[in-house]
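User: Can you help me understand a structure? I only have the sequence.
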Amino acid sequence: MMSSPQFAKRSLPTLFSVLCRSLCCICLSLTSVIVFAQSATLEAESTRAGSRLRGAVKTNFFVDPGWQSEAFPQHAVCYCSADEMVEIYEKSSKRKGDVITSYEEPTDGSLRIVGTGHSFMMPGYSTLPLITRAAGLQQPAPVLHVGGGITGSSRYKWEEENGIFGFDKKPVPKLLCSIACAKWDAMMWGPYYNDRTEYYACWIDFCRKHQQDMKFYLSDAWPQLDQLNPVPKSEDELTDEVIARMHDEKRATYGPIIRELNAKYGDCVFVLPTSRAMVIAVEYYHRGELPGVQGLHKAIGGKDRSLWRDRLGHLGPGLESLEGYVFYATLYGRSPELIENEIPLPRKNGYPSEDLDRAFRKIAWEAVTSDPMSGVVDEDKNGIADDR
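Assistant: Let's start by predicting it. Here is the structure, written out as tokens:
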């Protein structure tokens, strides 16, 4: 089974040519490049899936047998030189001269981030820039290649960027181009059903090949109704213990992937503990400590202001910031509770309230510091990771 692209199958001159750094100097792009999938599109994708499967969630997808090979197809973009990648992306995107995103090294501790993901990642991706700005950071706009459902998975984006398997010779190397030609500090991924270690190892290998000293972050999503059989008919069945058990099942899936990657590459891969955050949020709700939240799951209880809004498991309204706080706390090792400036988060009719927002900040830090796979330790309880 292929654990990563076998770059050694290419000639050494070709390999070394991709290390060309001159493009970094002549292709600086100062434009904002966060590209979010439109919420309406993601909503439609979720709705179509629910309708097609009568409410159930599809979890099995075709995987090209090429993933079992010793190497990716020779025409994979990951084997090209940096200038070849630029030419390929200019052609596929029909853009000239601005296909590379590059940022100067921040002086305020901000991170230069690239990432993939699907609709479960979008709440955090959309609120993280607002949170970092309020924290006094001038974080460059993350460069993202995202999509709804499986189209935002790490495997799908690797195939799409490289023009292999289902995208044979139709590459869209949006991230590969910028990774090969600029410096980055972190890469973020959203998880997907039946993930394998190699779906992430290929990205790490490519980043290492281009001399990137990066950290990598994998969200573990959160509990989903279809983990339960039968699906509960009442929210009373969604006890703290049930939700915690569902979280443990998620961790049993993604934990081994992170451990295997760290064993291979050194401790550079961490969890974004969004699942743990939702477990804690459920506990807060049951204690009456989430002001304004009316229910746990709209698909069961029917309340609009619930923690989850549909059977697939998308977050309910107002919870976007909770995921953003988890992202911020993990990436920067600081508690969102320390942010003094106002954060211009979206609110509707005063919801979420300031009190609920404070609860979300507390939950995020508790989730991050209580999860050993986040890499954040705060033994002195000052709201700042001990190694920062």
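Now, to help you interpret it: Residues 1-112+141-183 form one domain. The beta strands are 113-117, 143-146, 186-189, 215-219, 269-272, 295-297, 306-308. Let me know which part you'd like to focus on.
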